[in-house]
Amino acid sequence: MSADQALLKRLADVAIAVVIGAVTVSSAALDQDTTALDLALIVAGSLALAAYRKAPQVVLALTTAALSAHALHARPGPVAALPVVTAVHLAAQAGHRAVGAVAGAVFLGAYLAAGPVTHSTVERTALLAGWFLCAVVSGLAGRNWQAYLRQTEQRALEAERTREEAALRRAGEERLRIARELHDSLTHSISIVKLQAGVAVHLARKRGEEIPPALLAIQEAGGEAMRELRATLDILRTDEPTGTPALLVERARAAGLAVDLTVTGRERPLAATVDRAAYRIVQEALTNAARHAGPARIAVRLDYGEGELTIRVDDDGTAEPSCPPAEGIGLTGMRERVTALGGTLRAAPREEGGFSVRAGLPLEHA
């Protein structure tokens, strides 16, 4: 519950107590036997109702004692029972129906003993007994209704969680199926092409012949296609990060890229969604730099702020502001991840040359 909701409930409780007290005081003021002590008892017993959420049994005891003393002192009309009826209802709604019934009986005994037992007194007491019975029953009904609403909400949340798990499971199964199909249909064919090209290059070199540039291009393209296919299959088999941005930088260095990593701020564990998005952003940015930046230096910066993780990947490659690249699948996926977390992304050529990717991921999204 938020602070605003708690404040609104508190104000509502105070308003109910004030209204009940005002009605009871107005009725008592018309009785000539009412004294200042009676008014004080009514006000104390009524205003105590404002605290029923914290201590319903204490409120019930105070209200019953105050209004019973008022009934014994001034012999009021049935309206004087209104604060006690309300306290009994609230106590029953909180699960204290037996205590509420006892409090109602105590007030009825005081009301009946306040004056001579006449036919009119018995009728009023019987009427008040009906009020108290209704208060207990309505309190129990309200409690059961609230329990039903909570159970319904829990079932809805459980059903939603089950649907999400089923959807994730189906998505995972579909990724595995696609991975198997790609592996079976493409890996063999690409391997054959790469192997045949390699054999042809080897034979040409063995005979001392000039190797056709097209044959070298086929061999190189086959190797690149195999690497890309393996990376794609790894992504399809699992959507979870297989490391950290630091590990990605180490892998890029091992592949021959000039990459520097800088981490600022208080590094700490992130929510799974933020951690996954950060990993994929750095991964995609390094992949794009390796493909398009040429022999460039790459700087990866991670800034852990209080409410945001800032990721920046810059290279000094060949990209120019006058010729921005078309946004492909990688940048589109990166943007979708950032947008889903409520963050910001800027991916564009730098003024001084090269390409820059800057993403801001809200940490409070967790």
What does this structure look like?
By secondary structure, the chain is an alpha+beta fold. The chain contains ten helices and five strands, in the order H-H-H-H-H-H-H-H-E-H-E-E-H-E-E. It has helices at 3-29, 36-47, 56-74, 82-93, 97-113, 119-206, 213-237, 245-254, 272-292, 329-340; strands at residues 258-265, 297-304, 308-315, 344-349, 355-362. It has a five-stranded mixed sheet with strand order 1-2-3-5-4, covered by helices on one side. Strand 2 and strand 3 form a beta hairpin. Helix 8 runs parallel beside helix 9. The radius of gyration is 38 Å and the shape is elongated. The chain starts with a helix and ends with a strand. The model has no long low-confidence stretch (mean pLDDT 82).
Break the fold down into its secondary structure elements and pairings.
Layout: H1 3-29, H2 36-47, H3 56-74, H4 82-93, H5 97-113, H6 119-206, H7 213-237, H8 245-254, E1 258-265, H9 272-292, E2 297-304, E3 308-315, H10 329-340, E4 344-349, E5 355-362
Parallel strand pairs: 1-2
Antiparallel strand pairs: 2-3, 3-5, 4-5
Helix pairs in contact: 1-2, 2-3, 3-4, 3-5, 4-5, 4-6, 5-6, 6-7, 8-9, 9-10
